[in-house]
Write a structure and sequence with these properties.
- The protein is an alpha/beta fold and about 575 residues long.
- Helix content is about 40%, strand content about 20%.
- It has 3 domains: about 150 residues, OB fold (Dihydrolipoamide Acetyltransferase, E2P), CATH 2.40.50; about 270 residues, inorganic pyrophosphatase (n-terminal core); about 110 residues, Diaminopimelate Epimerase, Chain A, domain 1 (Roll).
């Protein structure tokens, strides 16, 4: 699919001001302005994220009530249960809450539901079958609970209080909990909407630690170091693909610092060892593409409790054993994902009319629910339209949905609520439940919902170029300055540059699906090594390219480093 190349045009006066005040290159200043960092103070804080820059989160709606109720439970030795979601965001939120409360002297346990057998979030059955038999007095949710009205009502009837910590979209009414700490509440104006579930849990701990300090709890106990929890906060934040700005950027930077210093928890080090990653070289990309998929594999293919146990263990042998199990589950996940994707490719080849629709809604009996979100993301990349995949079993369908920029998935599903049993999520990703007899009606309604906003949707994906960068402008100092913009991710994408009239001096296929090249540019005296990942090895390239979109990185190998281009897109043909 041909893509739009959009070269950003930041305000030249802003570039000059930032470049002069920050003593950085105009190229870096342009990148900062492109990310809406328009003032020297804001840009400086972005370049030097620090725990000291965290805003006090005590203004979050219901935070005081949550802190007071948890404090009472600690002091009275009431039984507390952390109820977490089964994805990495939920598991890490569960782990930091459990770790902190244990150190505060609480009588605390945790529970994570089975993704397929129990589904998402706190339910009335969990109150009857888990909380009541265990004699629980207080449930604290982690990354879930904002829509658990029936469960909270059941808990209230059983004399169990509930404190919700969550970040998912909420309906017009909130559950009747003691507190619902969710920055996306319409009546919450504290300005923390960007936080992941683990970030909301961390906000609770920041306020709780301060409150317990005021009550003298830490006179007899060691006060927990919250920065030490940031390795987990970083993992959950990156996993949930929330914007890496403000508090999220600070948490992730602090977490990577904890890991690089060798002070990460035993379970994190265990999984790093399995990935053959050195602690001192870890970056956000390693967490996103190597560590997080393994942690997520537990909930997708087996039970997320496995990931929670890994993150909470202090025993190296236990950590190694669980890390080995996660490797096996991740390999199974990849195989399952490939099989479903191949099946869908064949179906679309046999039924090309499906691609005439503005949305892709597909269902099949027995698809593995744990990987549908990943497969949906792959299809969005390939066909650039909202995708809903539904696995059916015994008359019930469970689905995962992914969207494109311009279409708010949560609103789209809200428009189809009559056909659905339940749904939840946000603008770009969601889950749903549906009866099989309603799938056809849902498909038509969802197509209509997408069509209603089709004028706002770009018909092809867009490549946002930070600036045109000729080879002669590339220096080692520039790459160092680009490196300082990390961590990269949602809301802070890795800078993307464009160069035109590029010649391929050398080219070879490596690892079956990657192309390693040596590139030069007309009029430039320098050549640069480059690599392009996941290419069609049978597609030949001419010696001369019209333009390339690329990232600039250090290629670190055997203790040394050298400049390298990572090719994102190529246009090979000249007019």
């Amino acid at each position: 699919m041909e893509k739009h190349w959009h070269i950003l045009q930041p305000d030249p006066s802003r570039i000059r001001e930032l470049s002069g005040r920050l003593q950085c290159s105009p190229i870096i200043a342009a990148i900062l302005v492109n990310r809406n960092l328009q003032t020297p103070d804001g840009a400086s804080k972005f370049l030097r994220p620090s725990i000291e820059h965290l805003r006090p989160p005590c203004g979050l709606k219901d935070m005081q009530a949550a802190v007071e109720r948890v404090t009472r439970a600690i002091e009275k030795r009431e039984k507390i249960m952390i109820f977490g979601d089964y994805d990495v965001d939920g598991v890490t939120a569960t782990a930091i809450l459990f770790d902190f409360l244990l150190k505060a002297g609480a009588d605390v346990s945790y529970y994570i539901p089975h993704r397929i057998e129990e589904g998402y979030s706190l339910k009335a059955d969990h109150i009857d079958k888990v909380a009541v038999p265990a004699g629980i007095d207080l449930i604290v949710t982690a990354d879930c609970g904002s829509g658990s009205h029936a469960a909270v009502q059941r808990a209230n009837a059983a004399g169990i209080d509930v404190v919700v910590t969550d970040h998912h979209r909420v309906s017009d009414t909130l559950p009747s909990a003691v507190a619902v700490v969710n920055p996306k509440r319409p009546d919450c104006t504290a300005g923390f909407e960007h936080l992941a579930g683990v970030g909301v849990a961390m906000a609770l701990l920041i306020c709780l630690r301060k409150h317990l300090r005021e009550r003298g709890v830490w006179h007899t106990r060691s006060e927990p170091n919250l920065k030490a929890l940031c390795d987990l906060v970083a993992l959950g934040t990156i996993a949930d693909a929330v914007p890496l700005v403000d508090e999220n950027r600070i948490f992730v930077t602090a977490g990577i610092e904890v890991i690089r210093s060798g002070r990460a928890r035993t379970g994190v080090i265990g999984i790093l060892n399995n990935c053959r990653l050195s602690c001192r070289d870890v970056d956000a990309e390693d967490l996103a593409f190597k560590i997080i998929p393994r942690l997520n594999a537990a909930g997708r293919m087996d039970h997320a409790l496995l990931a929670a146990r890994l993150l909470l263990t202090e025993n190296r042998e236990t950590a190694k054993g669980i890390a080995d199990s996660l490797d096996e589950l991740n390999n199974r996940r990849k195989d399952t994902e490939r099989q479903i994707l191949q099946q869908i490719k064949q179906y679309l080849k046999d039924n090309p009319q499906e691609l005439n629709c503005r949305a892709l809604v597909l269902s099949h009996e027995g698809w593995h629910e744990g990987v549908l979100g990943i497969v949906a993301s792959r299809l969005v990349e390939r066909h650039y339209r909202p995708v809903v995949l539904i696995s059916t079993r015994e008359g019930i369908g469970k689905g995962s949905a992914r969207s494109i920029f311009g279409f708010n998935l949560y609103r789209g599903l809200t428009a189809c609520a009559d056909q659905l049993e339940n749904f939840g999520g946000h603008g770009m990703a969601a889950g749903l439940g549906i009866r099989t007899e309603n799938i056809s009606a849902f498909k038509a309604a969802f197509e209509q919902a997408v069509a209603a906003v089709s004028a706002d949707i770009d018909p092809a994906p867009e490549i946002r170029i930070d600036c045109v960068l000729d080879f002669e402008q590339i220096t080692e100092q520039l790459i160092d300055e680009i490196d300082a913009l990390q961590p990269f991710g949602s809301g802070n994408s890795e800078p993307l540059f464009m160069a035109g009239d590029v010649q391929i001096k050398q080219s070879k296929i490596v690892g079956d699906r990657h192309r390693r090249m040596l590139l030069t540019q007309s009029g430039a005296g320098r050549s640069f090594p480059a690599i392009q990942f996941n290419i069609d090895p049978n597609q030949a390239l001419p010696e001369r390219l019209k333009k390339i979109a690329f990232h600039l990185q250090w290629n670190c190998w055997n203790g040394g480093k050298s400049p390298q281009m990572v090719i994102d897109e190529i246009v090979a043909t000249f007019p």
